[in-house]
């Protein structure tokens, strides 16, 4: 009984493999025929890396004991023959748990001690420091042993109130949020701050990352979770209990962490089995479930169809026992279908568009180059045909003409050098404003404005101002890119007219779109600064973490903008270099040909045939290129029309891969 989500993710995985194979063939073809310049090679590598390595993160968020861990077990790990993630009554998962697979890391469970919260280092930085983590090996052949090891995520210990306070689990001013305190004045706190499970499970190997979170205020206490992981998750599943409905604390989690507009959110109304009542008919129970869904939808202000009634426990048990009827009653499959339909096609489309767009651009770049080469061959053929029956004196004259033309052409080098230096300077200016140093300066301004006081209102304003300045930097980068484009258009036109180049400046780059990423970060942070957890920012350690997290997220945006600009400009330069090389080669060939014809007139026909053969070879290359790109498009777009059964899609992907 293969879970729906799993099959669909499998199909996506097959598609990725098939599309990657087509990209690889295209790259191989280009390399074999010496058609791959540096910037294109870079693009191929980045795109293939995205296809094979891009992660898909699904985060589960809810108040404690709503069944997050149980649902994760039912959706993703029912193949293990037992309950993998600990799920039990009361508080169970004590720290965020990230399940994924990275072939470069050892298999096992790694845990970050809670005390690291006292350092200013952010979780993102700690990820790169293996010595900060405790490692527990997992024996894949022993599910019992694995489950026992995973119980580590439940570990807690008792500490004096003061220590809990330092670690962010106690606040005198917010008594209602504090954990219970025992007779000795001690408080129970998690032993670990974050857990990562690195497991070569088929789904995780396909790039899925599952994030299980602890309930209660724990979400808010870790800025990394609220600001880093959750906003970047591709989908968030919010879980409610059918037995409890929407409680006040459910609602505050929803409002504080899930109401961001950009998130793909799913709401599961779990534990519908608990509504079964021996005194009611099954129809009456169904009506109760329906009423509950409507009331949840109304409270959360979402459409009723977006609330999925399920029973995670029943689904897990049914899958473990191969019980189809039980699985149907759990209604999990409808939820899984919605989750995969909402998530996977969009992801596939994004990857497909990027792969197809890039490949087509590469194709038009090469086509331009082919056209230019064929133009030169045509000229040469004309020149050679004109020599038929001509005396060797005429050939001698032609030789001199070629020499003169070549010398005249070489005058372009000074012009090219001038253009290159202008181009390099403009590019440097455009990139300077996007450097991580520049970013740090801007964030430092925020820090100075705030001083030590991170009062929610002031912090929010300072932050909004920072985002406005950063947007202005992106706008400036856009303008500089357009200036570079105009400069190249003008220079290319002159070079084409004076020296017979056929240079074309691509459409100008659009980096303005990255302002949307900034907007998203802004919304997350503003929400965080405004919410009930903002008081935690008063603690110095959190402030520093907050700052570092912010810089690291902003840096990703700025680096993407820089990379795009660099790649665009590299492509433009590569075109100039390519044509220069081709023209020089052509002069040399023409000279050598005439030279040989002069010494033996029988050479003329041989040379004519050679040039014709070269021209035909280019035509063949162009046809082959077209075929390879078409194949890629065909595989990447996949079968059009109605979505089909995932198994069929997977089979198709495989068979296409083999052809
Ligand atoms: N009756 C019933 N119980 C369920 C269902 N799903 C989960 N439970 C039970 O509810 C309890 C809590 O489930 P967990 O999965 O541990 O809940 P959680 O949301 O992960 O809780 P924390 O880890 O504490 O944040 C466990 O005893 C589960 O077996 C369900 O569909 N029906
Ligand atoms: Mg849990």
What does this structure look like?
By secondary structure, the protein is an alpha/beta fold. The model is unreliable at 640-659 (pLDDT under 50). The protein has 22 helices and eleven strands. A nine-stranded mixed β-sheet has the order 4-3-7-2-8-1-9-10-11, sandwiched between helices. It has a two-stranded antiparallel ribbon with strand order 5-6. The radius of gyration is 32 Å and the shape is elongated. The longest helix has 60 residues, at 540-599. Helix 11 links the parallel strand 10 and strand 11. Among the domains are: 11-40 and 350-388 and 603-628 and 637-659, no CATH class; 156-190, no CATH class; 395-583. Helix 9 packs parallel to helix 20 (540-599) and helix 14 packs parallel to helix 20 (540-599). It has helices spanning 4-32, 38-53, 68-76, 123-126, 143-150, 161-166, 202-205, 218-221, 223-232, 248-258, 282-300, 312-321, 324-330, 332-385, 392-410, 412-432, 436-450, 456-499, 515-530, 540-599, 603-637, 646-658; strands spanning 56-61, 97-100, 108-113, 134-137, 156-160, 186-190, 192-198, 208-212, 235-241, 265-270, 307-309.
